[in-house]
Amino acid sequence: MPTPYERGVGQRIAYYRSVVRPKMTQQQLATAACLALGTIRKIERGERGVGDSALDAIAGALGVDPSRLLDDRRPHTRVHEALPALSAAIAAYDLPDDGPVRQLHELQAAVAETTSWRLSAQYLKIARRAPNLLPELTRALHSVPSEQTPTVASLLVAAYRSADAVAYKHGARDLSARLIELMRWTAPQADNPLIDAGVSYVRTETFFAARAHTQGLRALEKAIDTSPTPDTPPAIAARGALHMRAAVIAGRARRHDAADTHLDEARTLGDSIAEGVYQGTAFGPDSVRIHEVSVAVSLGDEHVQRAFDVAAEWAPPKNLPAERRSGFYVELARAQLWGGLADDAFESLKVARRIAPQHTREHPWVREDAATLRRLKRADAESLTGFAEWCNAT
User: Fold this and answer.
1) What single string gives the DSSP state of each residue in 239-276?
2) In a designed cystine with 61, which of 12, 33, 192, 324 is the match (CB 3.0 to 4.6 A)?
3) What share of the chain is helix, strand, coil (3-state, %, to 5)?
4) pLDDT tens across 95-146, in order?
């Protein structure tokens, strides 16, 4: 039987559906959330509880953060509330608590799952898994036979990367930097140059956060020089991904020539392999196109037209990771806003939200652009207000 707390959730859902989102019927909410009409009715009447996946789906359909349905007084999302446990889990990275260690194949499956969550922007799931998984992998690293050390080290690097995605996307920059340093500390034990290249790719986040774009470009170019010869698909993808990211940070550094050079290199490498996820990073022709838009937005001014040219003839296919697809529309929205296309910018933001709501909601550009749209635009003010409320735009 649902508790009074759960009945309160149902009342809030009904309120947002019928008052904050007028004219939205229970059937429309059920369709938008991919739930049965009977389920919506029972939840609103307090006749059944609501699980996390259903709550996230309903909140996404209503255009609000799930925390607003749980308790209107809570200012942070559930991911933010999980960050202290993640921080505690890495505080004693070299001295993990005693505990169980699963078989290697089970650890591999668990890390693969967290990687899939990262690529699909399911940050809450990672935030709940990582505080237990990271210490377990550290215990395994200290206890497995030496011949298994590289494998476990590679798993730990991947797990740190998934945890870092949660921290970085949710603005916990110090925690993100700490996790990246742990990736760099662990990577040599994996004894795999491809993993080293992947760590260099992720490390660029610290340069973006500090706006140290010139230094970040220098670090990436050094990583490119030491990356494996691109003679296999994984090695091609590793070097190509570094060129993609170098192109973007060169744009932020206002290094037009360097941005074009790195983008050209990435395009050449991308055209030589199939789009896919290599060592946890998506790379291929489609990923390069998305980064072409990123470079255009990074350079700004007259370069923004390049973003329009890409979007006019191409859209990210559904087989690309959700995080990357939503990022394309976030970047495109910024270009459209700069180009005076407010309606198009808002539509792009809504597409980004449909693809990956957790990623879109926490993106600082989304908040900035939603706030700008509210100031500039008066038509469809209700939808804009709802979107701005959802992403906490001010």
Assistant:
1) HHHHHHHHHHHHHHTT-HHHHHHHHHHHHHHHTTS-SE
2) 33
3) 75, 0, 25
4) 888 899 999 999 999 999 999 999 999 999 999 999 999 999 999 999 999 9
Residue 101 CA to residue 48 CA, distance in Å, equals 37
Angle between helices 104-119 and 149-169 (to 10 degrees): 30
pLDDT in tens, 133-179: 999 999 999 999 999 999 999 999 999 999 999 999 999 999 999 99
Class of domain 192-311: mainly alpha
Query: CA-to-CA distance for 108 and 155, rounded, in angstroms?
Result: 7
Domain ranges of the chain: 1-75, 78-181, 192-311, 315-394
Residues 6+ apart with CB under 8 A from 295: 247, 248, 250, 251, 259, 263, 303, 306
DSSP state letters, 183-238: HHHHHHHH--HHHHHHHHHHHHHHHHHHT-HHHHHHHHHHHHHHSPPS-SHHHHHH
CATH superfamily of this structure's domain 1-75 = lambda repressor-like DNA-binding domains (1.10.260.40)
Instruction: Give the CB-side neighbour count of residue 231, counting CA atoms within 13 A.
Output: 2
Give the tokens for residue 308: 């329009």
